[in-house]
Amino acid sequence: MNKKITCSLDCFDICSIEIEEKDGKYLAKGDKSHPVTKGYICNNGRRHLDRRFHKDRLLKPLLKVDGKFEEISLERATDIVVEKLSEYKRKYGSESIMFFTDCGYGGMSKEVDGMFFDHFGGVSVHEGGLCWSAGDQATKYDFGDNKANGINDLVNSHNIVIWGRNPVVTNMHLMDKINEANKAGAKVYLIDPVVTRTAKLPYVKHIQVNPATDGALALNIISSLVENGWENRKFLEDNTIGYERLMEYSKNITRDFTILETGISNEDINELTEVFSKGKTTVILGYGIQRYKNGGNTVRAINALCAFSGNVGEVGAHVYYNNKRITRYISGHLKESDKFGKSKRYYPKTLMADYIKEWDIKCLLITKSNPLVQMANVNKLKEAFQRVPFKIGLDMFMTDTMESCDLVIPCTSILEEEEFVFSSMYNPYLNYSQKVFDKPREVASEYFWFADLAEKLNLSSYPIISKDEFFKNALGKLISSFDISLEKLKEEAFKINDDVPFEEKKFKTESGKIELLSKRALEDGLTEHCIYMEAPKSSDIRLLSIHWKETINSQGFMDIDDIPEISVNCKTAKDLTDGEIITVKNENGKIKCRLKIDNSLMDDVATIYQGFWWKSGCVNLLTDDLESEMGGQTAYYDTFVTFERS
Ligand SMILES: Nc1nc2c(c(=O)[nH]1)N[C@H]1C(S)=C(S)[C@@H](COP(=O)(O)OP(=O)(O)OC[C@H]3O[C@@H](n4cnc5c(=O)[nH]c(N)nc54)[C@H](O)[C@@H]3O)O[C@H]1N2
Ligand SMILES: Nc1nc2c(c(=O)[nH]1)N[C@H]1C(S)=C(S)[C@@H](COP(=O)(O)OP(=O)(O)OC[C@H]3O[C@@H](n4cnc5c(=O)[nH]c(N)nc54)[C@H](O)[C@@H]3O)O[C@H]1N2
Ligand SMILES: [Mo]
Question: At CA 322, angle to CA 321 and CA 326, rounded to 5?
Fold first, then answer.
């Protein structure tokens, strides 16, 4: 019988994958019965098998002795972790230990790492993030909750505006729904500075926008709607607070200014204004638009535009940033550990390097992430890492991050775990994942490994329970709310039926309305309503480091040694030529790239794929460790570089 797993990669789609065995060989294919996957998957999902059997996979713990790694047993490695954690806690307090994690593995059972550190007494942990934090916070200010219409609702829209998402590459199952809606008559627009694969779809009208200027576009459309008397006054009066103030403010963002700032023609802005003046419109936001210092205000401005046009909480009309459904039902030990973490303190994730120094961190434990590749300004971060006396890392591969650690502990693959996987990005289902293979002996299955640590450290409050008991506990609220058993959840993917979350126009804000004026934002030191913050400008080239079809973030680059390609138009390239090897640099660092002339790009904008390791040319050697104005998002795309002939 084929086994079914769920892709554990950090992606919108979290596909259901069938693992077929034939004559001792294994094959991964899309699960036809899953309502989202529908039988097709991408190469990244297929590669779970390659990763599990990969020649470079870490199979034994490695301890650095005199600068060189030596293999040790898992038992010895665990004992060293126990010794080190106890020692630093005793000498400097548990907060001298820093914990860093991300979403390199999406299964629930490996979420126990954070809980472990709470029971340990609380350590230094991060807030903010690398992925969606500015837009997430913006959505919270406006709507009080981060929910979107069900995925089958798109077919009810007359217009779909994809705003800074590249679903053909990053969210391929959304394309089914967009195609379906288009066939049913929906017009599809894309607003993106880059001619992406999504932009090239024949039915998509692509509007090319200067990076970080979408806020001006949204505010100018608001003021144009009002000028024409096309705003939805009744919706605004019934469901929002503060629209008059925002209406006044939006008048400052004139059409002439917007054309200059965004690079969009008058005709196209008129067309978009019409789109928002009639019919039902769904805006699908991506995460690229908020990787800027002004990223939160951009998302607030687009949310406001949807409110001004009445496109919120209606069938076929809403703004979709993310969709936190299942996560609201996670309960039990995972959610209640905070009370044990008395010494817990938070550092802004983007600024990790500064906090390592400022807090004189003694020990670092890293799981499910590759910060020395994926964080911004990794030269600075590496230098900070070098000051930390003892670093522990868990991963399947010897990444640049693991290379910098003193102790590396190999971890299991999703194929070796019984698991539940869910995401708040797109696929709305809670998905079960079967165990296909036993784990190699000296590899840690994090669920049991953290329990082992807790036992050895005598953390008496830590729940040492079977995995099934853990799932029952963590899913307790969901199980009781929907009267469903764990067994049933294992049999079939489960979705919370909540198709138009704001249909009643009851928002989770303090006022219960859409807060175009947000007291919470004001309390957080921001402006009460969204504003247009002009992005940093420079005579150098702006670097957009976007996501690639061939890999998910940095996973998959152990097999790639070639240098990355960087694209600009011929005007920006000046005398450099197509195919030439060049040095791309700024005050943070430099990398070698192969130049590609792409005249579809705007002036002084370069694109490169993120995820390449240091051996090939990691783009984060160049990015600035800057935060967005809200939500603590890394503003990766406010980075400027120059080119030099190599
Ligand atoms: N194949 C693949 N799939 C993935 C990933 C991957 O690495 N590879 N990563 C996963 C993860 S972690 C995430 S967060 C998502 C990301 O998914 P997306 O949000 O779809 O992808 P990004 O590349 O982050 O950015 C989307 C688009 O934003 C555009 N953009 C950049 N700046 C601006 C701007 O100022 N304005 C506008 N309007 N657009 C702008 C970029 O050109 C890009 O086309 O994808 C997930 N899926
Ligand atoms: N310049 C630039 N940088 C970016 C972005 C960008 O657009 N531009 N995008 C950002 C975004 S959206 C994101 S989400 C982040 C992602 O940042 P990360 O989450 O750090 O990226 P990944 O490459 O997915 O790294 C995850 C690591 O976890 C390991 N891993 C996989 N499974 C397991 C497991 O079960 N246990 C453990 N312990 N480890 C495991 C993988 O081998 C991999 O090394 O990167 C960000 N970085
Ligand atoms: Mo992400």
Answer: 160
Q: In this predicted structure, what is the pLDDT of residue 548?
A: 96
Residue 1 above 90 pLDDT?
Answer: no
Continuous segment of H or E residues that includes residue 34 = none
Reported as half-sphere exposure (CB side, CA atoms, 13 A), residue 373 has a value of 28
Under a CB-based contact definition with an 8 Å cutoff, are residues 198 and 164 in contact?
no
State the pLDDT confidence band at 498, using cuts at 50, 70 and 90: confident
Ligand nearest to the CA of 554: 2
Per the CB < 8 A criterion, the answer to whether 38 and 32 are in contact is yes
Residue to probe by mutation, ligand 1, list 285, 290, 426, 547, most atoms within 8 Å of CB: 547
38 φ/ψ sector (left φ>0, alpha ψ -120 to 50, else beta): left
Residue 371 sits at the vertex; the CA angle it makes with 367 and 372, to the nearest 5 degrees, is 130
Whether 370 lines ligand 2, by a CB cut-off of 6 Å, is yes
Q: Distances from the Cα of 86 to the Cαs of 89, 94, 100, 373, in angstroms?
A: 5, 8, 18, 29
Q: How many CB atoms lie within 10 A of CB 467?
A: 17
Is pLDDT at 133 greater than 90 in this prediction?
Answer: yes
594's CB contacts (< 8 A; 6+ apart) are: 563, 564, 565, 566, 579, 580, 581, 582
Q: Which residues surround ligand 3, an ion (CB under 5 A)?
A: 131
* Banded pLDDT at 487 (limits 50, 70, 90): very high
Q: Which atom of ligand 2 is nearest to the CA of 553?
A: 23
- Answer yes or no: is pLDDT of 497 > 90: no
Residue whose CA is at the smallest distance from ligand 1 atom 3: 170
| pLDDT tens digits, 373-408 | 999 999 999 999 999 999 999 999 999 999 999 999
Render pLDDT for 154-175 as a digit per residue (tens, 0 to 9): 999 999 999 999 999 999 999 9
Q: Closest residue (by CA) to atom 10 of ligand 1?
A: 11
